[in-house]
Amino acid sequence: MRIVIINKSDSTGGAAVVSRRLMEALRRQGVDARMLVAEKLTDSPYVEQAAEGLRLKYPFLKERLSIFIENGFNRATLFKIDTGADGLPLWRHPLVKWADAILLNWVNQGFLSLKGVAKIAALGKPVLWTMHDMWNMTGICHHAGECRHYREECGNCHLLGRKRGRNDLSHHTWKRKQDILPRGICYVAVSSWLADKARESRLLKDERVEVIPNTFPLKMSERTGRLREGKIRLIFGAARVDDPIKGLPALIEMTRILVDRYPELASRLEIVTFGGVKNPEALSGMALPHHHLGMLHGEDAVRKVYEEGDILISASSYETLPGTLVEAQAYGCIPVSFNQGGQCDIAEHLQTGYIAPYSMDTATSARSLAEGVAWAAEIISDKKRHREIIELMRENVKRRFSAENVAEAYLRLISSCPG
Question: Taking the model in full, what pTM does it have?
Answer without folding.
Answer: 0.90
